Amino acid sequence: MVDVQLLxxxxxxxxxxxxxVGPPQRRTVMAALAVDVGRPVAVDVVIERVWGPHxxxxxxxxxxxxxxxxxxxxxxxxxTPREPLLLxxxxxxxxxxxxxxxxxxxxxxxxxxxxxxxxxxxxxxxxLLREALDLWRGEPLSGLNGEWAARMREAWRRQHxxxxxxxxxAELRHGDPAPVIGPLTxxxxxxxxxxxLAEALMRALHETGRSAEALDCYAAVRKRLAEELGxxxxxxxxxxxxxxxxxxxxxxxxxxxxxxxxRRTELPAQLPMAVRGFTGRDGELARLxxxxxxxxxxxAAVVISAVSGMAGVGKTALAVHWARRVESAFPDxxxxxxxxGFDPQGSVVQPTEAVRxxxxxxxxxxxxxxxxxxxxxxxxxSLLTGRxxxxxxxxxxxxxxxRPLLPGAVGCMALVTxxxxxxxxxxxxxxxxxxxxxxxxxxxxxxxxERLGAGxxxxxxxxxxxxxxxxxxxxxxxxxxxxxAAAQPHQPxxxxxxxxxxxxxxxxxxxxxxxxxxxxxxxxxxxxxLSPAAARLFxxxxxxxxxxxxxxxxxxxxxxxxxxxxxxxxxxxxxxxLVEHAPGRYxxxxxxxxxxxxxxxxxxxxxxxxxxxxxxxxxYLHTARAADVLVTPQPNxxxxxxxxxxxxxxxxxxxxxxxxxxxxxxxxxxxxxxxQQPGFDAHTWxxxxxxxxxxxxxxxxxxxxxxxxxxxxxxxxxxxPAGRAGAHRGLGLALDRLKCPAPAxxxxxRALELFAAVGSDAGQARTHQHLSRMSGAQGNAELxxxxxxxxxxxxxxxxxxxxxxAALNHIGWRQAHLGDHLRALAHCExxxxxxxxxxxxxxxxxxxxxxxxxxxxxxxxxxxxxxYRQAAQLFHATGERHSxxxxxxxxxxxxxxxxxxxxxxxxxTRALDLTAELGLPDDDPLRAGLxxxxxxxxxx
Length: 940
Known about the structure:
Shape: globular
Helix content: 55-70%
Strand order of the largest sheet: 7-10-9-8
Distance between the termini: 55 Å
Radius of gyration: 30 Å
Structural class: mainly alpha
Largest sheet: 4 strands, parallel
Number of strands: 12
Low-confidence stretches: 248-265, 506-516, 936-940
Number of helices: 41
C-alpha cells in the first residue's frame, strides 16, 4: 500500500518504506492534492496553494511538470496492485485517487472520530487516540513555506492539541498518569498558552506525587497568560490549582503503585527491536521463565549468564524476545548495552563506558556523575534500589567486563549473553547458566515455515533439508536464506539449495570447521544476489568501526548521495546482511562484519579502501565540527582542511539537533579515535579537539582523558604543534575535572606555550579560562583573576564575542568575591550584553547568576531577585538542572532578604523537588542548605 504522509515532512510511504518526493515546491504540490484526496483540484487552486496570490509567470507549467514527476513516483512506489495511489487529470485539474486513510491526516481524523464515538469510559478511547498521535512525525508540512501551508499547519496543530488532551484525560481516567507526562510536557512547550494541556499535565504530575512541579506548571502558564494576553487563568485551571494546594486527589484516579510512578519524565526502554518471526526456542524460554519464577522473594538480584553459545546461534534474539515478553514484571524499565566483546575490530565496550550510558539513561545529570568507575558503579546500583528493572548485558567477553554492570537491588534481573560460558559468575554471583545450541533440523524447518509459509516448505522436503543443513542450525543463516527466498516467491527451493551447494564449493573451509564453512557459503550465496552498488556498500561498511552508523555516514563510505544510498541500505537489510536495530541506525552482526572485511580486502584495492575511509573520516570530522560550533559559542582554536567530495557532512540548524547528533554519534567518534588508522593522525587529533567540549560538559572525563592521550600521540607523529596544543588542553581539562590539579596545570601550561607558538589567540583564551576556573576552585582568587584578564585579552584579539562574555563574567565573579562589587557589576553587565548579542544562552544563564549574586551583596535585593529568576529560567531552558537548583536557593535567599518570606519558601520548595529529581543524598550541600532554610528535621 502506498500512503501520503503530511504530518511531518511530506513523503510517500510504500509498504512502510519512505519515498522522497523532491524539492519543497514539488512537496507543496503533492500536499495541495493530497488534502483533497478523492476530489478534483483545479490547477488554479494548486497554484494559489503553492505560490499564493502572486504566482510567477510559468507557474502553470511548473505545476504540470511537478505533477508528471509525482505521478511517476506514485506508479513506481506501487509495485503491487494492492491499494495503488493514482494521480489522474480531471476537468481542468488533477485528482488523487486513493482511499482517504491512505493520507495520514485523514487517518488521524478517522481515529479521533472513532475515539470520540467510543465514549469516555471505554478503554479503547485511549488506545485509538494514542494511535492517532503516533501518526505525527514532527511539524506538519515540515519545510514548506507560504500562507496556505501555514494555515493548514495551524489548523492541524489545533486538532493535534485536542487529541493529546483527550488522550491524556482518557489515560488519567483509567488510572495510568505516568505515561502522559513526557508527551504533555513537550506539547505544552509547543502550545504554551493552551490551558487544557496545562490542566492535563498538572493532573498527571499531581497524581504521580509530583505536586510541586504541578504548581510550577500553573505558575508558568499564569505568568505567560498575563504577559502575552493580559489575562488570568480560567476557572477550571484555578480550581485545580486550589485542589492541589489543599492536597486533594482526584477520586477517579487511583494512586499508582510505587514501582509504576515515573522517577523521571520517561522510563528507560533501551531494548532493541524484536526479531520478526522468532520461533524454535520453547525449551530455552521455559527455562528462563522458571528461573524468574524461582527468584521471586529471593534476597539478591538474579543474574542469568546462561545465554551462551557460538556466534550466530541467536543469543541476542532470545534475550531480547524474552525480555520483551516479561516487560510487565519489570515496570521501572529496561537497560541494554551491546558490550561488543568479540568485535572483529577490537572496539570492546569498557565497563566505564557502559555504566556511564546507564547513568545517562537513568537521568543522571553530567555534573552529578562522580569520577572513577567504582563511584559510578555505586551510584548506578543506588539508583536501582527500590526499582524493578531488567538489565540486558549483551555480547560479553568475560566476567570482568560484566561484574561492574550487575545490579545489586532486590527485584532487578541481569540477563547476560556471551559466546563463553561465564562459569565465574555462577561460582561467585550465583548466576544461572543456560547454553544455547544450534537449532535442531525440525526447529530450523519451523523457522523457514514461519518466514516462507508452511505450504511452500512442505512442498519441497528434500530441498528444505538441504537448506537446513547448509544453515547449520544457526538462526542468522536461516534469516539470510529466508530473506532471499521470500524475495523470489516463484523460484523453487530446490534451485536455492543447488545455488547454496555451488557457493559452498567455491569457498575454502575456514579454521572454524565445517559449520563455519557452511555459514560462510550462505553469506556468499546471499551476497552474490546483491546489485553491484549494494555489494560494494556491503564491503565498504566493514571499514566502519561501529557500533552502528546512519545513512549519511554510509553515503560517505560509498561516495554517493544519501538519497541513493537509502535504497542500497534497504536492499542490505531486506537480505538480512545488515540490521536496522533502531530507526535510521544500521549495524552488522559480528560474523557478517568479518565476512565483509574479507571481501573488502579481496575485491577493493588499497586506493579504494583508503578513499572510502578518508571520506568517512571527513564526514565525521566536519559534521562534529559543525555541531561543536553550535554547542560551543567560542570558535574552535584549530582549523580543518575542506572535506573531500562525497563526504556528505551534516549542517545543523539549531543547538538541539547538534547536541542530539553528538549524543548519538560520540561512541562512533571515540571508536574512530581508538582505531588510529595509519595515515589519519590529523583526523584523530582534530576529532578529539572538536569533541572536547561535549565530552567535558556531559561528564565523559575518563573518555576525554583516554582520547586526549591518543590525540597527543597522533599530533606528535604528525609533528603538528597546533594538534599537540589542543591535545594538551583536553588532557588538562580531563585531569582538572578528575581532581588531579597538578598534572592538569602542567598540561594547561604546555598548551599555552604551543598555542602561543602557532599564534592561536582562541587557544590561549580558552586555556587561560580553564586556568582561571581551576585557580578559583583552589582558593587562589588573585591568580584566577589574572588568568581571567589574560583570557579576555586573547578573546578580544580573536574577535570572539561569546568568549569575551565568558571572560568578563569570570572577571566580575572573581572581583565580587574579592569585595570589589561595583567593578564586578560593570564587567558582568558588559558580559551579558555580549552574550545576548552572540546568542549564547548558556553564557547568559551564568552571567545572570553572577549579577544576582552581586546585587545581593550590594543590598539591592529586588534586583537580585530579578536576575536570579532570569538565570533560573535560562538554566531550565538549557537543561542544567543542578545549576537551576543552586540558583533557586540563591533566589530564595534574596526573597527572604527582601522580606518576601512566602516567595522564599515557595522557591526553596521548588529547589527541594529538583534535588529529589536529581537523586541528591541528604548530606549533599544543596539539600543540606535547603534543610536548614526550610527548618525541616529530615527531607523526604
